[in-house]
Amino acid sequence: MFKTIIALGVISISLYSNTNDEKQPELKMYACGITRVAFIKELTQSFEKERNISITLNKKGGVGFVTKGLHDKKVEIGAGCRAPLKNDIEKDIWGTQVAWGALAFIVNEKNTINNLSLDNIKKILLGKITNWKELGGDNKPITLYLRKGKHSGVGSTARKLIFNDSNISFSPNAIRVKSSGPIRKGVILNKYAFAIDDITSSSRTKGIKMLNVDNIAPTKENISHNIYKLRRPFFIYLSKNTTRWARQFLNFSLTEKGQEIISKTGTANLAEAVGKNDDKNFMFQKFLFHMKSR
After folding, report:
1. How much is the pTM?
2. Looking at domain 25-101+231-292, which of 2.40.37.20, 3.20.20.70, 1.10.3720.10, 3.40.190.10 is its CATH number?
3. Other Cβ atoms closer than 10 A to 259
4. pLDDT (mean) for 193-204
């Protein structure tokens, strides 16, 4: 009897050891800088723990880097702050919205300006207003920081939401950089800087002040209620020949738990958005995922 018990114990230990020796599944993912800050880190950590999977995530790169990674099959899933384009690289990538961000117009925290009209914001971006004195501030030139190109997440969204023109050119005198990180750094270091960012990034960066637009603050509540009109969708991207783990991650982000994780980061999720047709949009995104992932 004693020998039988020992034998069973040895078998159970052996079985347990074999289970532990199994290779842990891995999911490769790219996310743009804004979505990484907004919610992707927290969402991946929770998914890793729940599904016992390892997720590798990039530390640098914007939306173009993400979509090219999917196109080149370097990763199985991506996240970004604009819809996929209809170009050669992104035509086979589809995006499902999982949260809401919003454009934020940022200045140095020492700048005396707190509010701008959307009309004046347009004039700054086009180079028609170049001095803070014209806006009621100090008699100092406006140092405008912008992203290079027209198809970054922030740049493309700003053109569509503010000007309804994806190809409009901004001021040729702006300082142009590759990513949003250097833009925020420039604003922190320059009292008279002005730039476009996303609320999720700027709200977590010391030394930066987000301006009200037409006296409406870019808060999570105002975004959820669609009172602040410059909100924009955050997407998770999949390609046509996606993997099971990638589909599961996207599905997880749309579940009650996934949406709760997004909300706890301070980002407005789809479930709590209560603007006109927001409930239908959430249902549509779920439907879109299930149709595309078949």
Report:
1. 0.86
2. 3.40.190.10
3. 21
4. 93
